[in-house]
Amino acid sequence: MTCAVSLFLDVLHLTAAILVLCYRRLVFSYPHSVGPIAQVARAAVMRLFGPNILLLLPCWLLGVLAFRLGDIAMSRGVAIVLAALAAALLVFIVLRVSPLPLSTMNAPLFFSSRFLTDWLIAALIAAMLVFARRAVADLEIAAPISGFARRLADQTFPLYLFHHPILLFIAALVPFDHGRPLQVLTVVAVMLAVIACLGSLCDASRGWWRQVFETGLRRLSGRRDSMHPLSK
To answer: Residue 232 CB: number of other CB atoms within 10 A?
Structure first.
């Protein structure tokens, strides 16, 4: 079984590298960056990521698709029903459906071992976001509420990025009892406070990083095209 999975990963990895070399629009970044150096660079990035990360690529692409769809043509009532249905299915899958194809953290896939379940969950989340956006499109939301929601949303990526290493650091520095709710809540509170600080630093440097990567990609492509709409 392990040999078969390893062979599958090797084939997936090689296929992804070939596709990136041949088809410029597989990566939602700079479609006009089609120079040979840029294509080789994309393949190298795929090689660096490894097959485990590539197995989760559809989850991120579904998020890009949900972002690009914008406001769909649909009545508010239908959108509310579909958003609620997607949310109900999401809860059912998370609580009742066994991870597929393998249980979480099972070798050799580890954090990608349940990639089929993750694809389905990502599809439902993307659908829920699309329908929910249509459901609230005509509502007037007070500026303080929308501003707070935007600031809260800005912390989701730092939360995703930093929560695991911070938890490992805290556990190594101050061992705590997982069976004591107060200790667990304290650790979570400290983690969220640290992530909020790191998130503010990341947000402040976002423009600088965007300029660095934009300049690098343009130089690799040999063109000076305008920025892709997704990066705006």
So the answer is: 7
Q: How many CA atoms does the CB half-sphere of 54 hold within 13 Å? A: 24
State pLDDT tens for residues 59-71: 888 988 888 887 7
In this prediction, residue 82 has a pLDDT band, given cuts at 50, 70 and 90, of very high
Residues 6 or more apart whose Cβ sits within 8 Å of residue 104: 111, 113, 114
Helix, strand or coil for residue 97? coil
Q: Which pair of structure tokens corresponds to residue 215?
A: 């300049």
- Residue 176 makes CB contacts below 8 A (sequence gap 6+) with 170, 183, 184, 186, 187
In this prediction the pTM is 0.63
Q: How far is CA 168 from the centre of its chain?
A: 21
Tell me how far CA of residue 201 lies from CA of 135, 146, 160, 208, in angstroms.
33, 22, 15, 12
Distance CA 153, CA 203 (A): 12
DSSP assignment string, 105-157:
TBTTTBTTTTHHHHHHHHHHHHHHHHHHHHHTTT----HHHHHHHHHHHHTHH
